[in-house]
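Sample intake sheet
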Amino acid sequence: QVQLVESGGALVQPGGSLRLSCAASESIGIYAMNWYRQAPGKQRELVATVFNDNTTQYVDSVKGRFTISRDNAKDTVYLQMNSLAPEDTAVYYCRARDLRFGLWMSNWGQGTQVTVSS
């Protein structure tokens, strides 16, 4: 199992930017890395994925605004969030998946709170 710690969440105004970080306890080079979010009263949704070949996928609502990236040398995954809107308010989580077997390599952690409000 990979231990993941999310950080970087904050209170920001609409239109602002944040960069979230997901630090891993071991090498993540072979894993697909995912950012999820969960807003109050809503189910957790997959926001972005970066695969081990650095290809990416995003949910439609964040395309053009969010960028997921990885630094395997630092065992860290990032989520750059620009043009933030109130609907982006949520707890953001990261999670690792080994696509060789389709197995999740981490459990849900504490997440990091992002609040977008004026």
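Comment: The radius of gyration is 13 Å. The chain is about 0% helix and 50% strand.
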